[in-house]
Amino acid sequence: MRPLEQARADVVGAVPLLPAEATPLDRALGLVLVEPAIVPHDLPPFTNSAMDGFAVRAADVAATPAELEVLEDVPAGSVAQAVVDEGNAIKIMTGAPMPGGADAVVRVEDTESSDGTVRILVGVEVGANVRPAGGDVRAGEVALPAGRRLTPAMIGVLASIGVTEPVVRRRPRVAVMSTGDEVLPPDQELRPGAIRDSNRPILRGLLAELGAELVDLGIIGDDADALRNAVARGAAEADAIITSGGVSMGEYDLVKQVLGELGSVDFWQVAMQPGKPFAFGHVEGVPLFGLPGNPVSVTVAFEQFARPALLTMMGAEAVLRPRITAVADEDLNSDPAKTVFLRAATSRDGDGWRVRLSGGQLSNMLSAVAAGDAFVVMPRGVADVPAGSSVTVEMFRWPEDRRFDEGIA
């Protein structure tokens, strides 16, 4: 069996980059920049007011109260026509360009207005409530480097510098199938010996979170011809193929056989738990990820292999989930011959973290994944970890963990 780290490096190193294309900004969320975004002008592009109030010379309001003549009213989107001289002020709205001569803004709540004049009640220093041109980023700087997956805030940055069609690697198309005569669609009544398909719904959700497009190949029974046809269709229509089931040692485990006939099996079996019977290969140059049949194994194998490989195909630099260190609330047991992923739930403990198992640890017990947010990563060579020890935890989701009435601090 291959060590997990070697197997993952081999998988990630064997997948191709997807083509680059200009994509409308409203469809670019989650995609990866191919080229750095260079700022064409200062942000903000002009010095402007950070508050609704009055643009003044700070020297004129050093002693308060101070009475000033109001020259004009400047809303956002307008430019002052007058210049602020000694004894003058201009009423200004948030975002409006600072008038000539003014070097500070007094908040409207610190003033009293009357016809043509304003009484300043609180003095300000030079630069108070003023946002300088280029205070965020300056012209010529890199706003976003290549290799970043675009978040909503990054989309906003691109919009603010006039990028409407960023060059990104296109969204991957991934063909997904479940295999096995015993597997039924979720809407069918169970018959003796049958189970409902949870693997494709899991994979559809994981791929949607990743931003991939889905080619759903359905449920394929234990029929070599049907499986060949499905794999061939996936190779023709998709950038990657993900199967679940059919990669173990049984007589009806056909995925490895068909993969060997239509393409190549690079390796199978990884020293990990769950997810040991993982197969990886190519069909007509399209990578195929043969995941095990148990739903927890599907989830773990996807997280450790398919997800980082797909992100690599998308051009991302960061491809692995975040890890933290937490204190174990209970004794933890592992197989020292493998890297073991225990399904767990984390909680805050002051400035640190605690972790506990979230349910049963058999590879068919999906409820423990649903109840958890992390995997405790037990490295090879480690059999037992006593309660109170520090462990490595890999977060597969960061759920909301505070009610609205728990404060904002």
- Strand coverage percent: 25-35%
Q: Give, in spatial order, the strands making up the sheet with the most strands.
A: 9-6-8-7-11-10
Q: How many helical elements? A: 7
- State the CATH architecture of the largest domain: 3-Layer(aba) Sandwich
- What is the H level of CATH, i.e. the homologous superfamily of the largest domain? MoaB/Mog-like domain
Question: And the CATH topology of the largest domain?
Answer: Molybdenum Cofactor Biosythetic Enzyme, Chain A
Describe the structure in your own words:
The chain has four domains: 2-17 and 171-313, MoaB/Mog-like domain (Molybdenum Cofactor Biosythetic Enzyme, Chain A), CATH 3.40.980; 25-42 and 138-169, Molybdopterin biosynthesis moea protein, domain 2 (Alpha-Beta Complex), CATH 3.90.105.10; 48-131, Molybdopterin biosynthesis moeA protein, domain 3, CATH 2.170.190.11; 323-406, Beta-clip (Beta Barrel). The radius of gyration is 30 Å and the shape is elongated. A six-stranded mixed β-sheet has the order 9-6-8-7-11-10, with no helix packed on it. A six-stranded mixed β-sheet has the order 18-15-19-23-22-20, with helices on both faces. A five-stranded mixed β-barrel has the order 24-27-26-28-30. A hairpin with a 2-residue loop joins β10 (111-114) and β11. With 409 residues, the chain is of the alpha/beta class. It contains seven helices and 30 strands. α4 packs across α5 (255-262).
